[in-house]
Amino acid sequence: MDCSPRRIDLTNDPKDDHEHIRRLQGCINDLISIQALPAIWDARKSGQIVSTLLDVLVSVLRLDFAYARLRNSVNGSPAEFVRFGERSIPRPQSFVTAARSALADPPLNDPIAIVNSIYARAAKGKGDGGGAFIIESKSAKAKYLSKSLIALWAKADTRTPKGDVGAVDFDPVTNSQEPDVKSFAVNAEKSDAGTAVIAVTVTGHDAPRANAADAVIRYDFVRDGGHWKIDDIRGAEEGKPWSLRGMLGDSLKN
C-alpha cells in the first residue's frame, strides 16, 4: 500500500475523497500494528520474533511471499521461516530456492533445503495438497528416504492384506488426514557429518491444533550413499508420540 503523503482536494468528487480517507485510515492501522511489535516481542525468543515479523510484513505490505533465515539459532544451527500471502502464487518452491540462493545458503543436498522444498510444495495453492508425494511411489521413496527405511516399509507392505491402506494411513508430512499448510518454520535441532534432526512447525489456515506438540514434525536424516536421506519422521497425535519406524515396526508384530 502506498502511504506516501498526498494532498486531499475537497473540490474533487466526494467518492474520491472517501477513498483517500479509507486508504489513509488503512495506513494508520498498519503503522499501529508495526508500533505494537516491540511490546509483543518482549522476552520472546529470536525465532518467535522473526515469525511474528514475517506475519506482519506479509499482511501490511500485501506480500505474496516472505522469507527469513537465522544463521545462529538453536545450538548455532540455522533456522528458516517462510510465509505466503493470501493470493496463490505459482511454484512457491522457486521463491524459497531463490531466497536461499540470495542469502548464500548451502547446496540443496542439505537437510534444511530438502525439508523446505517439501513444505514449499505442500503449501502450494490452498495448502491442502499435503506431502504424501514423498512416499507415493517407489521412485519417490528412493528420492527422499534412506535405504534402511525403504527396506522396512517394503517388509511391512508384504504383511498388508490386499486392499488395505497399510501401516501409515495418514500424511506424515502434515501429520493429518486433511492437509492444511499456510506457513511453516524449519529449525535444525541437530546436525553433524552423518546425521541431522530437522524440526518443522506447521501453521494452517484453520484454528491452531489443540495440542501444540501436534504441529511439530521432526525429520531424522542420515548420510546414505553420499546424499542426505530421511531415515524417520516423528510427530505427535493429541500429544502422544509416533514415528514412521515405530508404526512400520509394530505392523510386523501383528
Which terms summarize this structure?
8 helices, 7 strands, elongated
Structure commentary:
β6 (227-237) and β7 (240-243) form a beta hairpin. α7 (147-158) packs parallel to α8. This protein starts with 13 loop residues before the first helix and ends with a helix. It is an alpha+beta fold. It is elongated, with a radius of gyration of 22 Å. The chain has a 7-stranded antiparallel β-sheet, sandwiched between helices. Helix content is 37%, strand content 21%. The protein folds into 2 domains: 12-43; 47-253, no CATH class. It contains 8 helices and 7 strands; from the N terminus they run αααββααααβββββα.
Task: Provide a concise account of the structure shown.
This protein has 254 residues and is of the alpha+beta class. The chain is 37% helix and 21% strand.
